Amino acid sequence: MQTEKLVIEDKEFQINIYTENRNNSRASIGKIGINIRLPRFLNREERFREILRLKKWAIETIRKKPSRFDQKQVKFRAHEDGEIFSIGKDSYQISITFSDKQGSSVRIKDNRIFLNISSNLNEDEKREHISTLISRVVAKGKILYIKYKVDELNKRYFNFTYKKVFLKHNTSNWGSCSSNRNINLSTRLLFAPEEIIEYVCIHELAHLKESNHSEAFWKLVKEAMPNYKDKIKWLKENSGGFIF
User: What stretches of the chain show up as alpha helix (H) in DSSP?
Assistant: First the structure.
């Protein structure tokens, strides 16, 4: 997925551009931005023209009734069968089938994620199942990297004692440090550059010594990462599309 920013009527919209196995181009205006879906067979010039055409449609549509398209944060992305889903440097092809059963399941093979979703769910529940399962299966492939990153940063700056590191499908915060000294990190961080992931790891490691956001806590963070405020600003400005 490629992302861009577009300002319409003094409001900023995120444009999500998907390249998929499809026969035509389409655009929709959703709760997390403008979604443009393009066929894989387009050459560079055709792709450029289609993006311009669909951006123009979105601008005209939003300007007709701006209040209808106030952007609201949602927790779960709307995935489609056959789409290419990118996170960090990795891309996955999503395969979705539906079955008349109680639960939903997921497996991954060669960067292709196979989802089998219960057809007994309503549309919001289906979206939640799909997003949660994608998050879970991607996390399994990334947890060793995250554990290594936390361990390396801890040895470099703190040498604190902690128990376990978890990657969780958490949409309410970027991380937490539990009372039993476990480090919990949100899978949404996997969308971020490495230096942003490092900031959140350092932030949670500092909580092993200082449980609140006191001056002593921020002193620990600053000693490890002097430009930590830049990372906080980056997260605030760029994390809107960090949704599974």
Answer: 44-64, 123-157, 194-206, 215-224, 228-238
